[in-house]
Amino acid sequence: MEIVICSTPEEAGEVAAARVAQVVKEAGPRAVLGVATGSSPLALYEGLTRRVEEGTLDLSEASAFALDEYVGLPAGDPNSYAATIDKTVTVPLKMNPANVHVPDGAAEDLKQACEDYEAAIKAAGGVDVQILGIGSNGHIGFNEPSSSLASRTRIKTLNERTREDNARYFASIDDVPRHCLTQGLGTIMDARAVVLVAQGEGKADAVAALAEGPVSTMCPGSILQMHRTVTVVVDEAAASKLKLREYYDVTYEHKPEWQEFDA
């Protein structure tokens, strides 16, 4: 696990975007991205958008698979992750909407929808680079604490802490769905490369558990310690509880090879 500590959230987003762009270019025009929602990857998406607008990155033939979707939201609900991915990924990155996939939280047969999603990822050749944030309780995707480390795409019950964290997007916590479809930890681990970005003091405990704690179902993100190619990009606040911080304190300015990602 490579950990890069940046001075600001904006810098963290730029470094993470550079890493994703590098993997995409290596994978070729039909690269497959795994995309996440939430506030953590927004600066990363902005960095990718700038590259698309400048003409240094072309995602017109690329595919994307979202990590998760709420169950039970009406079609077209602006709080659905399908709507969020369209707004933050598909449109600004000029991707073909037909190539951007989100789990079907409105399916009549949710179990079959999960199996179909796994099959679609496999048919696309697997994910080249999975973009991740991390929840304050250590979840990645909607794999809450106690999730199986070998899990695949499935139905999950959201715990109250996650629902409280997400309530800011809804009129009230009563409107936050209680169930979701999410890629499993085993599914995420199949990606060829992972880029996780986290900002803010509220993520400091989760980042420390992810990087330095034991691999445990109580911090689902800790499974990434077992991944062969994972980059964790955090700002100073999110890095504040790392015990071995001095070994990771390699900022964007002081690590020239990061600047070569877009070469």
UniProtKB/TrEMBL annotation:
Record domain Glucosamine/galactosamine-6-phosphate isomerase: where: 10-229
* UniProtKB keywords: Allosteric enzyme, Carbohydrate metabolism, Hydrolase
So where's the catalytic machinery, residue-wise? 68 (proton acceptor), 137 (for ring-opening step), 139 (proton acceptor), 144 (for ring-opening step)
Per the record, GO CC terms? cytoplasm
**GO biological-process terms attached to the record:** carbohydrate metabolic process; glucosamine catabolic process; N-acetylglucosamine catabolic process; N-acetylneuraminate catabolic process
Q: State which Enzyme Commission number(s) the record gives.
A: 3.5.99.6
* Gene3D superfamilies assigned: 3.40.50.1360
The pathway this protein participates in, as annotated, is: Amino-sugar metabolism; N-acetylneuraminate degradation; D-fructose 6-phosphate from N-acetylneuraminate: step 5/5
According to UniProt, where does the site described as Part of the allosteric site lie?
Answer: 147, 154, 156-157
Alphabetized Pfam families for the sequence: Glucosamine_iso
Which PROSITE patterns does the UniProt entry name for this protein? GLC_GALNAC_ISOMERASE
Activity regulation, in the record's words, is: Allosterically activated by N-acetylglucosamine 6-phosphate (GlcNAc6P).
**Record flagged with keyword Lyase:** no
A single Gene Ontology MF term assigned here is: identical protein binding
According to its UniProt entry, the function of this protein is described as:
Catalyzes the reversible isomerization-deamination of glucosamine 6-phosphate (GlcN6P) to form fructose 6-phosphate (Fru6P) and ammonium ion.
Family membership: Belongs to the glucosamine/galactosamine-6-phosphate isomerase family. NagB subfamily.
**What's this protein's name?**
Glucosamine-6-phosphate deaminase
* Species: Propioniciclava coleopterorum
Q: What is the lineage of its organism?
A: Bacteria, Bacillati, Actinomycetota, Actinomycetes, Propionibacteriales
Quick one: which gene encodes this?
A: nagB
